[in-house]
Design goal:
Elements (H helix, E strand, L loop, with lengths): L1 H19 L2 E2 L1 H11 L1 H22 L4 E16 L6 E20 L3 H67 L5 H35 L9 E2 L16 H11 L1 H21 L5 E13 L3 E7 L5 E6 L6 E5 L1 E6 L4 H7 L2 E9 L7 H67 L5 H35 L10
Parallel strand pairs: 1-4
Antiparallel strand pairs: 2-3, 3-5, 5-10, 6-9, 7-8
Family: Belongs to the outer membrane factor (OMF) (TC 1.B.17) family.
Organism: Christiangramia gaetbulicola
GO molecular function, one term: efflux transmembrane transporter activity
Length: 478
């Protein structure tokens, strides 16, 4: 039983360790970055805000309805409803109402504001697409850099293995008196230099892995690694198109132009909205209100027993008093709450027309300001097209140059491989010294490293051209 528990624990620990040390492919890195990169998330928030802006514009077509209610106590010197005299008392009053308003016409500004919101949402979506393209290229470049550093280390290790073998043969030749001891020292110095370069190469791998992990927003640098695999060159048929074909395709597909065009449409829509302020606005309104009080009410009248009559005047000539009955109000408790609300309610409704006449040239200046912004947006679109042409031309030229450099690096590597093989044969029979052998080996190692660098540089620059040609990010082949 104990052995079984121990085995289960080891298997669980092994599975956890394997999960933590997952090796990432390039496709997984790109997909993870598109979902978790902070810059992508921030751009997604802009799209979300544009959706809210669109809902705001739709809300302008909906009536505004507000309800209010007030229940207040007034303590102090207030007018009595029975005598009309100011007396110290506490009076409670309640009032409530509902108000509705609807804009019937505002110079079509609400309608154009909705159109603007839709364009703004489209512009933010284009910005998100561009951000995803940029992040994809950035991740691919960082990933290929890690891969280059790893394969560069493998080249150094392979060369160091050759040096170790040569060290043994040199030791035998020195012991036999065929080679001087200086050759042995030269080989040992070469081995020490190679070990130092291997340490630096390992450091470069860790640095490039950390840079890639930061791009992916992964904080576990220690367990982050990528799959060790060689990437072939796919998509070089894209260079069969002329640079002008790529430029025209980029103008149709790339987000940079779409963003600039959307910004110009936004500027034009702002002009239309500001011109709407020249026109009258027509609003409809409706109000329902009611009130209630806790104060006693007058329910009738009776003759004042203390003063049943009162003088209202005198007869002319006889000066005889004219008397009338003197009554006083009879108070009763307040009506029930809902009865008062029913009795005291009322409605108000109508239309309100506002005609702009003079507002200190504010509307006129705003229209002119937005017209200037349209001009600026036109220039920005023109500049975006020029920049795109320059970038595509540069990317196309770089890709062709990288391909030629890669082919030249392969030829140089093959030539140096044969030269190194020849130098090895001469060194083994004592026809050359250790210094010349080391120099041939270093040249061969440099051409191998350059061939690797040229290959991954060409792959990356080829992907840039493919993106400009309108190939979606997820369809790029590596």
């Amino acid at each position: 039983m104990k052995n079984f528990c121990l085995l289960a624990t080891l298997l669980l620990f092994s599975s956890v360790l394997t999960a933590q040390q997952k090796e990432w492919t390039l496709e997984e890195c790109v997909n993870y970055a598109l979902e978790n990169n902070i810059q992508v998330k921030q751009t997604e928030l802009d799209v979300e805000l544009s959706d809210i802006e669109k809902r705001d514009a739709i809300g302008n077509f909906i009536p505004n309805i507000n309800a209010q209610a007030t229940n207040a106590w007034n303590t102090g010197l207030t007018q009595s409803i029975t005598t009309g005299i100011l007396v110290n008392q506490t009076v409670r009053n309640f009032s409530a109402g509902v108000t509705a308003g609807l804009t019937l016409f505002d110079g079509l500004r609400n309608f154009k504001q909705l159109q603007r919101a839709k364009i703004s949402r489209l512009s933010n979506q284009y910005s998100l697409d561009k951000m995803r393209d940029d992040i994809t290229l950035f991740v691919a470049d960082a990933y290929l850099q890690v891969l280059f550093n790893k394969q560069n280390l493998e080249v150094l290790k392979a060369q160091n293995q050759i040096t170790q073998e040569q060290l043994g043969r040199t030791q035998d030749l020195v012991d036999a008196g065929v080679l001087p001891e200086g050759d042995l020292l030269e080989i040992r110095a070469t081995m020490a230099d190679e070990k130092q370069r291997m340490i630096l190469a390992e450091n470069q791998i860790q640095i490039s892995l950390i840079s890639l992990a930061q791009t992916l927003a992964i904080k576990d640098y220690q367990n982050f690694d990528i799959v060790d695999r060689d990437y072939d060159i796919f998509g070089n048929e894209i260079l069969a198109n002329s640079v002008y074909d790529v430029i025209e395709k980029a103008k149709e597909e790339r987000s940079e132009i779409k963003i600039a065009e959307a910004n110009m449409e936004l500027a034009e829509k702002d002009v239309e909205i500001s011109r709407g302020a020249y026109l009258p606005t027509l609003n409809a309104f409706f109000n329902y209100n009611t009130r209630e009080t806790g104060q006693d009410r007058i329910i009738g009248s009776e003759v004042d027993p203390n003063n049943p009559t009162r003088t209202i005047g005198f007869v002319e000539g006889t000066n005889q008093q004219v008397l009338t009955g003197n009554t006083i109000p009879v108070l009763g408790s307040a009506r029930p709450f809902f009865d008062q609300l029913y009795i005291n309610d009322g409605i108000t409704y109508g239309f309100q027309l506002n005609v702009p006449i003079l507002n200190g040239f504010a509307t006129r200046n705003q229209v002119r300001r937005n017209e200037v912004n349209v001009k600026r947006a036109e220039y920005q679109l023109e500049q975006a097209e020029l920049d795109l042409e320059a970038n595509v031309y540069q990317a196309y030229t770089d890709a062709n140059g990288a391909f030629e450099a890669y082919e030249a690096a392969l030829v140089a590597s093959e030539a140096q491989a044969k030269a190194f093989e020849y130098a090895t044969e001469r060194y083994d029979v004592g026809l050359t010294n250790a210094f010349d052998f080391s120099q041939a080996k270093i040249r061969y190692e440099n051409t191998q490293r350059e061939a690797l660098r040229a290959k991954y540089d060409y792959i990356f620059k080829l992907k840039v051209v493919e993106l400009y040609f309108g190939i979606p990010v997820r369809d790029l082949k590596f």
